[in-house]
Amino acid sequence: MNVIIDIGNTISKLFLFDGDILKDHKSEVGHSLEIIPRLLSDSSSSWKGVTFEAAIVSSVVDLPEEAEEHLRLFSCPLIRFTSETPIPIQNNYRTPQTLGSDRLAAAVGAWSQHPDHNLLIIDAGSCITFDLVSSEGAYSGGNISPGLHARLRAIDDYFPRLPLVEAEGATPDMGYDTETAIRSGVIVGMQHEIEGYVRHFKAKYPDLLVFLTGGDDINFATTIKNTIFADHFLVPRGLNCILRHVRKLKLEQE
User: Fold this and answer.
1) I need a surface site. Which of 111, 167, 221, 222 has the fewest CB within 10 A?
2) pTM for this one?
């Protein structure tokens, strides 16, 4: 079994893979990774008694010593995912050291499922990111746009007379009061933004496949839904693919 650990700004996520099959996933708030000893000691946990072959850690923060101690509980080789880590696709980003590990992992995760197509990966999280992988297996780059909650907060921060609106609620085509005007302006605007990217790149690459991942669920028009693979686990799938790639390279060198 492979262990995939994805540590974000607020949430740490752990995934258990058997080959390329996701067997289990857990998460906790914070970066202490206290969940690891609990998983390994709980008799009802699917993690207890498992033979771990390898692990990979992707983190956007510097881990505290407590977390490092918990990582050492996995009695297997552990890889830190950095810009220096070998990946199974070509990275054409001009500043690879500044590229978000989640963006690159999601690109690899999409490529691992459809390696012979042009791919557009849309991650709707704190930011919306748009990343492109060519049919030749090259990461071409991408764009970053504010996410749902950042847009709602920005309206409240920059316009004193406008309220902070919750994301949940009615989204008519045209708002009928201030609350729906803001919510629809943000959410419908995001939909059109995403649909515009899809149309643009489908015109350039007729075989384009689109992957959607991330925490913010967006309701697409039916014509757009039919072109998209929704996968909330695209990042861990990519990290697992990278881990398997690194292990394969190591075996070939031995």
Assistant:
1) 222
2) 0.91
